[in-house]
Amino acid sequence: MSSPPSVTVTRFAPSPSGNLHVGGARTALFCFAFAKGRHGRFVLRIEDTDQKRSSDAASLGFLKDLEWLGLRWDEGPVFEAPDGSSIGGGDHGPYFQSQRLEIYDAAITRLLEEGKAYEAFDTAEELDAARAAARAAGRPFRYDGAAALAMSDSDRAAARAGGKPGVVRFRSEGRAVTIRDEILGEATLPAGEVDDFVIRKADGFPTYHFAVVVDDESMGVTHVLRAQEHFNNTAKHLLLQEALGYRIPVYAHLPIIFNPDGSKMSKRDKDRALREAVVARGLEAPPNGRDGLPLCDQATFERWRGDKTVQLPGEVCSAIAEVLGVELPEINVEDFRRSGYLPEVLVNFLALNGWSPGNDLEKFDLAFLCERFSLERVVKTPAKFDRAKLLAFNLDALQAMDGETFLARLRAHGARYHPEFVARIGEANFAILAAASHPRSKTLDEVFRGNRFLVEPDDGIAWERTKAVEKALFKGEPTGLELLAAAKPELEAVAADDWSASSLEARLTAFCEAREVGNIGRIAQPLRIAVSGGTVSPPIFDTLAMLGRASTLARVDRCLASLSAAAS
Ligand code: GLU
Question: For 488-515, how does the pLDDT look when each residue is reduced to its tens digit (9 = 90+)?
Fold first, then answer.
């Protein structure tokens, strides 16, 4: 069943609760690069033995995120990629642990028969009491198997028949265990540290420790690369491997990723930022989304507001943040995708969180990483996630693109997150928007965020009253607003089928010359404010072309009516 040992096999084994966060993505990336660089296999396995915390939706999210990053698994859950190709499958499935119970049971039965494991029927109260006693005595709790081991077969049969919840525990015999790690070196857990831990829970599911060991063996995994928080767990895994007569894979525990301030990067960072914004605005009800409906129900919103341990679903969080105009720190892969980072940039940047190719080389692609990745260059100490650097990388990558590629990437991003743009302005105008925005763009998303006025209803434009607006509209002789009123008939004179950036430019240039306005900017800025509400937009004639004749005129009218009244 297992592959010949000469083939390198790594696996990424997420538990499908929540989303794939940057730390998990970095683990997957290193597993992928390590296997690929050695012509090996990269296996994806979904560790869904915790039934309460796992969900199919979360599993699917992991598959999508990995595919988006370009980390296609050679073996694992079958997944149809957006390009129509199929990923996954393989000879060592199923790749969802919840579908492998028979495999685990067979191994557990073997351990029971060999006296290397035993059933235990302690109640939760009994275990709690033992824990409390250990605490009171100032020593760490270690399960004492004496009573369970002393049970006779008939005692066990009676306990089972009486409906007592039984677990299976591994008989560790309190042995010392030495872990050898490719990154962290060697560490020995002293005798008595590993107690008789549970390997099958009362619900019949194996524990993480047991399933991971059985699967790493049966899937032929040769190298286990995973987060440092699992380092101590390895002791249990080594004991199980020995008891079951399995190979011992190479272990490498990867450094944690921290925020630059030294705190651990977690989804709570996002939640905290959203709470601050909601409290600052005294928001007591969920805001409405683009469809005019509340973004979540009132009861959920109140429960979240009242209890810091409650979290809103990721997409609800993002949607509320968007409406409030606050930017949340990205934590999950999906957050970075939504914010308009490119997957190849994220991959490049994540690789630098804990690894470097040397020679100050920082920009590289996945193929380079696969070729060069080695465990020797993985650091032991926590990696700092430098957002400014990520943004700079993204800017560079976007600026290095040709216009056609930028348009294609922007269109794909828009189709996923902002379909209202193409729907409203059409393909041709979308291409204008892409070309006009490309030179300044640091992310794909800022094109949409910065140009929301294009898709707002004409009567939804609200005019900022900043200094810049005041100056452009109310200062000078004539004022910007007066010029706008004078230019309006010029705009009206351009027919709908002639409504293009070049016609508009010709017309308004002539207008400026005739009126000796001098600088086209004198009319461009009032026009920009009239149609967008603010002083920032793509070049003015492109902007008017994208908006179209009817919207442009409607907005100019409304602006004149509302601001002339305000001025007088
Ligand atoms: N399912 C575990 C987790 O998500 C992975 C454990 C492992 O890689 O061994 O943390």
Answer: 999 999 999 999 999 999 999 999 999 8
For residue 485, the tally of other CB atoms under 10 A from its CB is 16
Point out which residues pair with 252 in neighbouring strands: 225
* pLDDT tens profile 402-432: 999 999 999 999 999 999 999 999 999 999 9
Cis peptide before 478 (omega within 30 of 0): yes
Q: CA of 54: how far to CAs of 17, 98, 124, 335, in Å? A: 5, 10, 23, 20
pLDDT tens, residue by residue, 206-237: 999 999 999 999 999 999 999 999 999 999 99
Report which residue type is found at 367: A
Q: What is the token pair recorded at 134?
A: 């250990």
Residue 352 near residue 255 (C-beta atoms within 8 A)? no
The reported pLDDT for the residue numbered 566 is 64
Residues of the chain predicted below pLDDT 70? 1-5, 565-568
**Fold of the 458-567 domain:** Arc Repressor Mutant, subunit A (1.10.10)
CA torsion angle 46 48 54 58 (round to 10): 10
CA dihedral (428, 431, 436, 437) positive or negative: positive
Burial class of 535 by CB neighbour count within 10 A (0 to 12, 13 to 18, 19+): middle
Largest CA distance in the chain: 107
CATH class of the domain at 100-254 = alpha beta
Q: To which residue do tokens 């049971």 refer?
A: 105
Give the residue, out of 20, 226, 240, 256, with the most ligand 1 atoms within 8 A of its beta carbon, to mutate for a pocket test: 226
Beta bridge partners of 178: 188
Position in ligand 1 atom list of the atom nearest CA 229: 10
Which atom of ligand 1 is closest in space to residue 226's alpha carbon? 8
Return the SS3 of 323. Answer: helix
Q: How far is the CA of 198 from the centre of ligand 1 (A)?
A: 17
**Residue nearest to ligand 1 atom 6, measured at CA:** 13
Query: Which class for 459: exposed (0-12), middle (13-18), buried (19 or more C-beta within 10 A)?
Result: exposed
Q: pTM to 2 decimals? A: 0.91
